[in-house]
Design a protein that fits this description.
mainly alpha, 8 helices, globular
């Protein structure tokens, strides 16, 4: 690592945003699995459809996060350290593999919500698809946190990171932001919440305006807690 390109400790980027996204993805993968395990034949379509609706939001947030990595964060880091150092090829391949697994979970949850199928078989299929998703997601986040994020922290300046995060906010559709902001705050520690609100003051207002909307989805998983 060059001392001319490495950022000083004072100029390092604030990684709260990506850290909380990873926390939310891990936590809700487990909550989705618990919710699917807890339903019975009398919960479909009803509660199973509600779980599928939450999953749809989760899937869309993960897909958007990966697109922002592929189009913004990863190219910026690769330009500094090279693709091999950050394991870009592996990370990109995992994104592509996750696309297929996420679609499989959607299909399995739709089948579980349908009243005509064999409940036990459909529940087992949904549980298996979620297990595969969680395993791949866990491996992907671990790889990113082992190689890409430490390099990002030392090689990308705080100013450049702020510019990239501003582009993310501008690119995020309003329909997805309605879920994203309260979802992140729900999974953040008090210190992380304060850091997020400081990073972009409008987030506080967006959180309060959309909290009820988020809770309409989240209650499907809260019942399994």
């Amino acid at each position: 690592m060059s001392t001319t390109t490495a950022t000083s400790h004072q100029n390092r980027p604030d990684l709260t945003f990506v850290t909380v996204i990873h926390q939310a993805l891990r936590a809700d993968a487990g909550r989705l699995a618990a919710a699917v395990a807890a339903v019975g034949p009398g919960d479909r379509p009803g509660r199973v459809a509600d779980i599928a609706a939450f999953y749809g939001q989760y899937r869309d947030q993960l897909a958007l996060h990966h697109r922002h990595e592929d189009e913004l964060f990863f190219p910026a880091l690769a330009a500094r350290v090279g693709a091999d150092a950050m394991h870009l090829g592996e990370l990109t391949a995992q994104h592509e593999a996750l696309d297929g697994v996420l679609a499989e979970v959607s299909d399995r949850l739709a089948a579980l919500a349908g009243p005509a199928g064999d409940f036990a078989a459909d529940q087992a299929g949904a549980a298996s698809a979620l297990s595969a998703m969680t395993a791949l997601l866990t491996a992907h986040l671990a790889l990113e946190e082992q190689y890409a994020l430490p390099l990002y922290e030392t090689e990308i300046s705080a100013a450049e990171n702020k510019r990239l995060e501003a582009r993310v906010r501008k690119d995020t559709p309003r329909a997805l932001a309605r879920f994203l902001v309260p979802w992140l705050i729900a999974h953040a520690s008090p210190a992380q919440r304060a850091a997020l609100f400081r990073s972009a003051p409008p987030l506080r207002l967006l959180y309060w305006l959309n909290l009820r909307y988020y809770r309409r989805f989240d209650r499907a998983l809260a019942r399994a807690a």
